[in-house]
Write a structure and sequence with these properties.
heterodimer, A: 345 residues, mainly alpha, 18 helices, elongated, B: 351 residues, Glycosyltransferase, two-stranded antiparallel ribbon, two-stranded antiparallel sheet, disordered N terminus, EC 2.5.1.59 (chain A), prenyltransferase (chain A), Prenyl_trans_a (chain A)
């Protein structure tokens, strides 16, 4: 939409504006016999014809800057227009704070456009730490409408790393997760903060409290894949330690007591069993409680039994569970029931 | 080189350090045979679709009505999606090859890169599309390879910028690597560093984001896994972990979503499921039916999800997906280069 129309004014064609009288527009060359003629609107055609003229003349003037704005309102995805606008902004030494305001307007129309975000980053980089809080606030506003907005998250991570502002980020993740515990983008951001914030001491320092956080989220909504994955991520590259953390087995048991066929819990138990976890009798009973007489499971060891159960309760991924069964470590096959710990992984 | 190729009905095999475990894939796709001819005839007869495929505009559902958005500035990408789709359908003859090739060459900028259309500024996204289209027509030799400027976009840390303005994204790593590989010029970049940067974008779920720490997303994962496949570096992918993430993307309707808790759509997931050889973990028959449900039954074409408006991008991914799912009557596609296998073979096996 054109800015004038947006503001309730009728658009004056460029050909009737005195400040453009000296410019000869350059029409689009679609070739003599375009395979598929594109039906441009008159407004779009005229604006682009004038844009081509200033672009070819490399005219870095205020009117050229204004024209790029009009062209962007008509089509914010045109890469060349944005690129030319940056050249003009640089040449005219425009106050880039105004540019941020313009971007805010245009982002409302089409927030999924790569060019807009790239341009925003370019502007923010030039303005530096002056705009840190402005940029963090701007992405927050986007998340009010779409809390998983990929471009906005990407921009926010860039702001934190390039300009700072980490102090309240963990609390912000908290806020978003309170709002929607299923928000995977917020879980991802939480991991980003925990592993990269200069103020928190890194993953090692944060692990204990984060395990507790994930477990709380799991108990609230056991069907939510994100905290289960987050929990594994906290013990990344060291699943044996995951299996040794008694809280993990305990949360699985709690979940299975309430929902016997919870795929995520069974999947986690399977992981634990494959990494030296010695199941309690309670755990064995909880798993065997899922097995009905009709399901006819003949597997001897518990891990294989879990796989068979998963095949039954999650038939869409039956092939995956079959594969998992085939990868159960050999040393587990004979130790159940009642054998001693033989784990050497 | 880095690569061995598939026969029809077999997934391509990407050599890696630890890749001997793939065994029989028993899941059969159960689709009535008539469905296949239905897809093809729809694509044959519809003028609207044909124009859509050959560079057309795409349609965008807006709140205030149905409005067509011109993608004049993306014509080169649109042409790639459309022409590749036509080729998979065995219908590339419908296009005047010389006309397309000369138009493409007009999109080349003085600097050597390609713009989205004639007179537009260059960007690697368009350069790859141009190379891919020339490959479809077996015309890569019209390019002055030395003039192309892709290698200069690599940064010290191994990442790639999309253009002189420096935006960094793993999409551009893929685009640069794929372009140079198709031109036999991977030696122009530091492949080791490029791989290292992509690996630094790996997340706890085994997927990849646009920069280190960014959330995993189907499109980005395709780019990263594709680039790792092309450079013979798939051993950096935790295939089982990523495979499980992918499995979890399949929802009850059979479609795959690009991120947790998102709606399913027709997208790139299927491409890298094939690359990492884990497509047999999902329910293929259900996925095929989901894609078929996304067809416009009257005018042809495929949309992002059932009952939405069709566009050339999702038509391409839908047809490519069906091809990878071994749907009858479609040419095999190489998921890493996103080109028909016969086209890729011609490039790498001819010399």
């Amino acid at each position: 939409m054109n800015q004038d129309l947006r503001e309730g004014r009728a658009r004056i064609p460029l050909s009737e504006r005195p400040e453009w009288a000296d410019v000869r527009p350059v029409p689009q060359d679609d070739g003599p016999n375009p395979l598929v003629p594109i039906a441009y609107t008159d407004e779009f055609r005229e604006t682009m014809d004038y844009f081509r003229a200033v672009y070819l003349a490399n005219e870095r003037s205020p009117r050229a800057l204004h024209l790029t704005k009009e062209a962007i309102f008509l089509n914010s995805g045109n890469y060349t227009v944005w690129q030319f606008r940056r050249l003009v902004l640089e040449a005219l030494k425009v106050d880039l704070h105004e540019e941020l305001e313009f971007l805010e307007k245009i982002t409302r129309d089409n927030s999924k456009n790569y060019q807009i975000w790239h341009h925003r980053r370019w502007v923010a980089e030039k303005l530096g730490t002056d705009v840190t809080s402005n940029e963090l606030e701007f992405t927050k506003e986007i998340f009010l409408e779409d809390a998983k907005h990929y471009h906005a998250w990407s921009h926010r991570q860039w702001v934190l790393q390039a300009l700072g502002g980490w102090e309240d980020e963990l609390a912000y993740c908290d806020e978003l997760l309170e709002d929607d515990i299923f928000n995977n983008s917020a879980w991802n951001q939480r991991y980003f903060v925990v592993t990269r914030s200069p103020h928190l001491g890194g993953l090692e320092a944060m692990r204990d409290s984060e395990v507790a956080y994930a477990i709380k989220a799991i108990l609230a909504k056991p069907e939510n894949e994100s905290p289960w994955r987050y929990l594994r991520g906290l013990y990344r590259n060291n699943l044996n330690s995951l299996a040794e953390d008694p809280r993990v087995a305990s949360v699985c048991l709690d979940v299975l007591m309430n929902k016997r066929d919870c795929i995520h819990a069974l999947n986690m138990v399977l992981d634990l069993l494959c990494h030296c976890y010695q199941p309690s009798n309670e755990m064995k009973n909880a798993i065997d409680a899922v097995v009905t007489p009709e399901s006819n499971l003949s597997d001897l060891n518990l891990a294989a039994r879990v796989c068979s159960i998963l095949q039954l309760v999650d038939p869409m991924r039956a092939n995956y569970w079959e594969w998992r069964k085939s990868t159960i470590p050999v040393h587990l096959e004979d130790i159940d029931p009642g054998m001693e710990k033989q784990c050497v992984v | 080189m880095f690569y061995t190729f598939s026969r029809r009905n077999q997934p391509p095999i990407y050599p890696t350090a630890s890749d001997s475990e793939i065994e029989s894939q028993n899941s059969e796709v159960l689709i009535p045979e008539w469905e296949s001819s239905k897809v093809k005839s729809m694509l044959d007869t519809s003028y609207q679709l044909k124009s859509l495929l050959m560079f057309g505009a795409y349609y965008h559902q807006k709140k205030d009505g149905f409005e067509s958005v011109v993608i004049e500035h993306l014509r080169l990408n649109g042409a790639y999606w459309g022409l590749t789709t036509l080729d998979i359908l065995g219908k590339l003859d419908a296009v005047d090859k010389d006309e397309v090739v000369s138009w493409i060459m007009e999109c080349q900028d003085e600097s050597g890169g390609f713009g989205g259309n004639i007179g537009h500024d260059p960007h690697v996204l368009f350069t790859l599309s141009a190379i891919q289209i020339l490959a479809l027509f077996d015309k890569i030799d019209v390019l002055d390879v030395e003039k192309l400027d892709v290698a200069n976009l690599q940064n010290e840390d191994g990442s790639f910028a999309g253009d002189m303005w420096g935006e960094i994204d793993t999409r551009f790593s893929y685009v640069a690597i794929c372009s140079l590989a198709l031109l036999h010029r991977l030696d122009k970049i530091n492949v080791e560093k490029a791989v290292k940067y992509i690996v630094s974008c790996k997340n706890l779920d085994g997927g990849f984001g646009c920069t280190p720490g960014a959330e995993s997303h189907a499109g980005q994962i395709f780019c990263c896994v594709g680039a790792l496949a092309i450079t013979g570096s798939l051993h950096y992918v935790d295939k089982d972990l990523l495979g499980w993430w992918l499995c979890e993307r399949q929802v009850k309707s059979g479609g795959l979503n690009g991120r947790p808790e998102k709606l399913p759509d027709v997208g790139s997931l299927i491409l890298f499921l094939i690359i990492i050889d884990r497509v047999h973990w999902i329910d293929k028959g259900k996925l095929v039916n989901f894609i078929l449900d996304c067809q416009d039954k009257e005018n042809g074409g495929i949309s992002d999800r059932p009952d939405d408006a069709v566009d050339v991008f999702h038509t391409y991914f839908g047809i490519a997906g069906l091809s990878l799912l071994e749907y009858q009557g479609l040419k095999a596609i190489d998921p890493a280069y996103a080109l028909p296998v016969e086209v890729v073979n011609k490039i790498f096996l001819a010399k």
